[in-house]
Amino acid sequence: MTETEIRQTAEQIAERFSEQADVSVDDVEERLQNLVEEYKVPMDEARRSVTSHFAKETGVSRDELGSEGSENATVAQIDTPEEWLTVDVKVAELWEPSSDSIAQTGLVGDETGTIKFTSWAKSDVPTLEEGATYRLQNVVTDEFQGRMSVKLNSSTEVEEIDAEIEVGEQEIEVEGALVAVQSGSGLIKRCPEDDCTRVLQNGRCSEHGEVEGEFDMRVKGVLDDGNETYDVLLDREATERVTGIEMEEAKQEAMDALDTSVVTDRIKSLLVGRYFRVEGPRVGRYVLGDDVEEVDETPDADALLMEARSA
Ligand SMILES: [Zn+2]
């Protein structure tokens, strides 16, 4: 975390108070710095903690606070609750609200996927039309039972935009030749912090720094169905099943060779050229291969595989 990032975050926090109270950027920065650098609190958490500290100190309630500078995000990027974001989305479905406190609820989406949205009756948000496309500025993310959603609130700005958005399907099934196994496949280590699970690079988590990682296995592959290529991501279970390599065995191999790339290489030689049907949710550019099985080759995919090999 750089000094500039801390300063910028401090400015954003102070700005949220600017209409109600006088909060100095320096005071905010000092507190943030202390949490982030001294106590290694992740930035998101530090931001929340410092914001509520100054809310208490100034007597400004959360509702009165201005919104945070909200970043643009795609639906697939939404993975953390309590973030303020801007999304360009199409209204895919409207549902019957389950209570009077909800003005509207349904699904919005972009090319990367769909997400539930809710707007509260008391927030007075403009009504969204099914099939229309909007820029929603300052929505806040939420998580319930592991599923993310966005909430439209009184600081949300709704603007209808003239954009062609094809809403990404949630579940897809692809069948084709596995033409590549990408780096980052095989034995990996993940951050052990709660709800983090980021893949470590040289023993470091991009959010939590140096940590004692936990082993995991996966395949990041490219599946070609003859028309299109898909990035498929297989989790440990699927990886063990299609490769026949148990994680313990992979760990032993990597330890003997003092190198995890032996596992990646072996997975490559085992999988490339075989045909699979992969079924699962599409998240961003990845199809999460919850369900994967080997299939007989199809002539189309075979021709493409030849091409891929000679390329
Ligand atoms: Zn982490």
Automatic annotation (TrEMBL):
GO MF terms held by the record: DNA binding
Which intervals hold domain Single-stranded DNA binding protein Ssb-like OB fold? 102-159
UniProt keyword DNA-binding, yes or no: yes
Q: Where is the composition biased (Basic and acidic residues)?
A: 50-65
Region annotation Disordered: residue ranges? 50-73
| One example of a Gene Ontology biological process annotation | response to ionizing radiation
Note the coiled coil stretches, chain numbering.
none
Q: Could you tell me the superkingdom of the organism this chain comes from?
A: Archaea
Q: What is this protein called?
A: Replication factor A
Q: Organism source for this protein? A: Halorutilus salinus
